[in-house]
């Protein structure tokens, strides 16, 4: 269960309490879910009871006590503990979480259905603007927001293929409320190759600076040293992949085997 899904679960618990006549409040738009703070426990905590206390006319602890059974009966939740002044600390069922991650694979964390209305993104035919738009579209889609992208004119095949950019339509934005992406343009060489750093390093160089700063497409992004943030990301990824390969070579997999008790040892 992802934090977003847990937030929806908390809202369902509030709705059940309202439907049962235990609370007289308006259902919030969202329920904050964060790691537990000092004095908390479990995997996540929500201050929803504190948020509803005043409109409900009850102390936060009373609201938390009302919500606790509704939340504890939700699938995927192992335990709910109340801590002052009214936090609901939630412990997830580890087995269900692991099974969900294994079942969804790369799609884990992505909503199964759209969670927001269609968003229109538009960008001029300029590499940095297109990369920012493409990245923003990917992030929004991963969180369940349908996105339509457009560009003033059709970019060159080299630009779209080298940088891995996908654009839906060209010309005038299809919606008057389209969000136009217009960061400071990136300086490109006058002659090919226009993107000598390759896809990953070029996208990083275009995305890493703030929109109002000028990007620098230099070989410094390929330097293998700790001061290079791109190198740190690549190094971490490479080490993780190496650990996975080495573990597989030793017979370790993501599924923990069922261990039979040794002869003469009583199973607990």
Name the descriptors.
three-stranded antiparallel sheet; Gyrase A, domain 2; 268 residues; four-stranded parallel sheet; 8 helices; disordered C terminus; 2 domains; alpha/beta; single chain
Brief synopsis:
The chain is α/β, with parallel strands linked by helices and 268 residues long.
Q: What would you note in describing this structure?
A:
By secondary structure, the protein is an alpha/beta fold. It folds into two domains: 3-92, 2-Layer Sandwich (Gyrase A, domain 2), CATH 3.30.1360.70; 119-245, no CATH class. The chain is 39% helix and 11% strand. Helix 2 (48-56) crosses helix 3. It is globular, with a radius of gyration of 25 Å. The relative contact order is 0.08. Mean pLDDT is 84; it is low at 256-268.
Task: Map the helices and strands.
Elements: H1 3-19, E1 44-46, H2 48-56, H3 60-72, E2 77-83, E3 87-92, H4 94-104, E4 119-123, H5 127-142, E5 147-151, H6 157-163, E6 169-170, E7 179-180, H7 198-207, H8 229-249
Domain Arginyl tRNA synthetase N-terminal: 4-92
InterPro entries: Arg-tRNA-synth_N, Arg-tRNA-synth_N_sf
GO molecular function, one term: ATP binding
Count structural domains: 2
Helix/strand/pairing category: alpha/beta
Main pleated sheet: 4 strands, parallel
Rg computed from alpha carbons, rounded to a whole number of angstroms: 25 Å
Overall pLDDT confidence? 84
By DSSP, the count of extended strands is 7
Q: Low-confidence parts, pLDDT < 50 over ≥5 residues?
A: 256-268
- For the largest beta sheet, what order do the strands appear in spatially? 6-5-4-7
Helix content: 25-40%
Report the order of strands and helices: HEHHEEHEHEHEEHH
């Amino acid at each position: 269960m992802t934090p977003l899904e847990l937030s929806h679960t908390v809202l369902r618990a509030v709705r059940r309490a309202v439907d049962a006549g235990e609370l007289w409040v308006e259902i919030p738009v969202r329920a904050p879910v964060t790691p537990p703070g000092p004095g908390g426990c479990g995997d996540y905590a929500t201050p929803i009871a504190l948020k509803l206390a005043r409109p409900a006319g009850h102390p936060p602890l009373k609201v938390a006590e009302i919500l606790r059974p509704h939340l504890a009966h939700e699938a995927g939740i192992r335990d709910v503990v109340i801590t002052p002044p009214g936090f609901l600390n939630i412990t997830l069922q580890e087995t269900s979480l692991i099974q969900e991650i294994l079942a969804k694979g790369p799609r884990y964390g992505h909503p199964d259905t759209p969670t927001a209305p269609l968003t229109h993104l538009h960008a001029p035919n300029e590499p940095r603007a297109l990369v920012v738009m493409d990245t923003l579209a990917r992030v929004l889609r991963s969180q369940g927001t349908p996105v339509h992208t457009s560009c003033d004119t059709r970019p060159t095949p080299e630009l779209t293929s080298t940088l891995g950019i996908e654009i839906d339509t060209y010309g005038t934005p299809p919606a008057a409320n389209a969000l136009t992406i217009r960061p400071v343009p990136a300086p490109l060489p006058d002659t090919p190759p226009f993107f000598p750093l390759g896809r990953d390093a070029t996208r990083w160089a275009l995305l890493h600076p703030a929109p109002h700063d000028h990007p620098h497409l230099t070989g410094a992004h390929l330097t293998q040293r700790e001061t290079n943030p791109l190198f740190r990301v690549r190094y971490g990824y490479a080490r993780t992949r190496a650990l996975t390969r080495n573990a597989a070579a030793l017979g370790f997999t993501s599924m923990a085997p069922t261990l039979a008790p040794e002869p003469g040892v009583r199973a607990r």
